# Entry
Amino acid sequence: MKISELFKEKTVLSFEIFPPKPTTDESVIYETLNGLTGLHPDFISVTYGAGGGKNGSKTIQIASAVKNRYGIESVAHLPCIGITKKQAVQILDSLKGNGIENILALRGDISPDTVPAGDFSHANELIEFIRERYDFNIIAACYPEVHSESKNIVEDINYLKQKVYCGVSHLITQLFLDNDYFYAFRERTAIAGINVPIEAGIMPVTNKVQIERMVKLCGIHLPNKFMKMIERYENNPEALRDAGIAYAIDQIVDLISQGVDGIHLYTMNNPYVAKRIYKAVHSLLAVQHC
Ligand code: FAD
# Structure
């Protein structure tokens, strides 16, 4: 099923998972998926390391299992910076062969592990490439607090608009901890004429390492309310986990009340956390606007 259809009916809830590291036993991902059994996300997306390699085949394998073994619609992430057009065709053919219909088309982060292959520079080029050759439903990423490489928000929104016009059916945001950034971004995209659904990316922050990593990678704003929470509970892992879950639930309740198109939960492969959040919010998703 092409997941763009879902937004016509309800507030969408999706989960994101990532393949295990090459050094980790592959079966752990199935423990994660078994742990998510009983929850009913509208889809599960599976990340893909921009460096490609073995991690890429794992993404295909896991996205296929999500759909064909667990009966949940899946989305395969595909970053293009590290792959050639020939490799893109191989991956896309394999995704198609496994019955996967939805792709999150990305550029990928530029890092020491990612050698640009030279065929794609930006996500819009991959989107066009897919659109010209395949019938996938294509999703793209967006940044309520502006992408870290953008000169300014105007440039970022203009490139986003170009990306959407290449054939994107919906957008998923980078994580944010202050909903006001999301609302301002939603307004700007509407003014720019970007009218596809936007799912809000929510990451429950449940440990200190995660916070440090998040700031380094995404450079997102850490609200005072959030920092106070961390300061108070940083030396008590259980309390910090519970506070992080409560914080994410609070964000989600506010977003749903304000008519968000969907919530994309970065599960960090943690079924316990996903379960607690799901239980707290799933009844809100079915309530239609008057
Ligand atoms: P682009 O849309 O190409 O944008 C990158 C930058 O270039 C922006 O500053 C933009 O304004 C600018 N730009 C865009 N188009 C052009 C153009 N035509 N000319 C000049 N400048 C342009 N990374 C992974 O490696 N694997 C994953 O699985 C993964 N999953 C993600 C899931 C989500 C929901 C999100 C939000 C991000 C994910 N990422 C993933 C991270 C992502 O790859 C990085 O944020 C990356 O730096 C940008 O990717 P993009 O697709 O948004 O790039």
